[in-house]
Amino acid sequence: MQKKFYITTPIYYVNDKPHIGHAYTTVAADVLARYRRMIGDKVFFLTGTDEHGAKIEEKAKKARKKPKEFTDEIAAKFQFSWGELNISNDNFIRTTDKNHIRAVTKALKFMRTKGDIYKGVHKGLYCRECEQFKTERDLVDGLCPEHKITPEKVEEESYMFKLAKYKDQLLEKIKNNELQILPKERKNEIISFYENEGLNDISFSRKNVGWGIPVPWDKSHTAYVWADAFLNYLTGIGWNGESESPPDKGGEGGFWPADVHLMSKDILRVHATIWPAMLLSLGLPLPKTLFIHGFFKIEGQKMSKSLGNVIAPEDLVRRYGVDAARYLLMSATIFGRDGDISQDKFDEKFNADLANGIGNLVARSITLASKINSLKSLSGGQELKVKESWLEYEKALYEFKIDTALDDINRMMKISDNYITTNKPWELIKKDKDKAADILYNILETIRHISWMLLPFMPETAEKIWDSLGLNPADELKKDFKKAIKWGGLPIDTKVNKGEALFPRL
């Protein structure tokens, strides 16, 4: 039976155009989605945009546009960027979509009927830039740590969600990994938060904010961000807001619960508290895993418009090409940790790993193979090492260790380079063509395996390598994965093609 795999990125807030941080999460999700498709799983990959709130209303006003017109433009920029990066999402959810609005309306009614939403007064410190309430403990010298502004003291009528009610139940589920949080240090961080600070009921609506989903029983209120945005993970796979027919039981696909919600560390807390509490209220299963990655700094500094160091995804694609941009993002740091990037570092890695690495290996191997009439498969000299590499590679991707999987690929390339250097096929071609044909088969067959490993990361490059090996990319993509990665898949009578350099040095 075909396994299902449902992966999500956060939905990105449309207060500004996409940057490299958004791209990092999205490419990572794409790599994992492509890998699961490659091995034969039934995959659903969701991304999208979060489009409601006072901040959007304000931004639209400044741009002299209606909120929907403004959000349409920014959402289109995200979709353009993901197209530039060859992102293979199955749906792009927008919180302004009609089916999402209908489902949110139904969900709010259900939670209220259950007694989990009540009318109250919310008092707190509100950061207008974050559009979030802060506690004193969140502030640094009285300022929002993110925006360096003093939050306003707010006291307003609000419909409240009974978050505190679910504290003990959620803490137990996190501790026993029913809701798995990775890496482990992030799980420990959340457990500490639960035990030391606890959960309080939260505001689920705002009064006098026009740009949002109206609270169905009180149109003077609109749904606050949590009540709206989180439900995209359900509506994006077709949920209609009816808890009696949840997406894990009915409808085509049956993708819920999500296998992994991928996100950066700044939104872990709300994903580990509010979102699972909402699911418990709705009577739905919790997601299996929250995987949390770190932030990028640019040459030691935080990305900032004022510093002029914000990198757009299309800037990377323009300089390096789509596959190289994807590779550079995924290899920039240990997945799950913070990283420091710069153009110099990217240039250096491009030349070392791509131009001198896979590009050089393919070019020199194809050049040598073109000097003999046919290959011979006699010794299987690289077979064991390739099998070991596959085991390590697959383990890494199952554990969301994306950078480790790339390390496994690079290790396999270095082994192949050493194999060429040790066996000197350029000399054997002159004196022992059979031995040369065997050595070159081992090299090209190893490259074929490397190309399959590269497929989730660099799909266009994998297809170019297949073409160089004399294989039809369309035929390769139709192959059963288990058969494709068996040793000996390259025909000995293949006709190699010298193409353009994969990655010319910068």
TrEMBL record:
Annotated GO biological process: methionyl-tRNA aminoacylation
Protein localization: Cytoplasm
Methionyl/Leucyl tRNA synthetase domain sequence ranges: 6-148, 150-365
Motif ('KMSKS' region): 302-306
EC number: 6.1.1.10
Broad enzyme group: ligase
Record key words, sorted: Aminoacyl-tRNA synthetase, ATP-binding, Cytoplasm, Ligase, Metal-binding, Nucleotide-binding, Protein biosynthesis, Zinc
Chief localisation class: cytoplasm
MF terms in GO: ATP binding; metal ion binding; methionine-tRNA ligase activity
Source species of the chain: Candidatus Falkowbacteria bacterium CG1_02_37_44
Taxonomic placement: Bacteria, Candidatus Falkowiibacteriota
GO cellular component: cytoplasm
Subunit (UniProt): Monomer.
HAMAP family in the record: Met_tRNA_synth_type2
Cofactors named for this entry: Zn(2+)
The Methionyl-tRNA synthetase anticodon-binding domain, residue ranges: 387-503
Motif ('HIGH' region): 12-22
Catalytic activity: tRNA(Met) + L-methionine + ATP = L-methionyl-tRNA(Met) + AMP + diphosphate
Pfam families: Anticodon_3 (PF19303), tRNA-synt_1g (PF09334)
Name of the protein in question: Methionine--tRNA ligase
Superkingdom per UniProt: Bacteria
Cleaved signal peptide residues: none
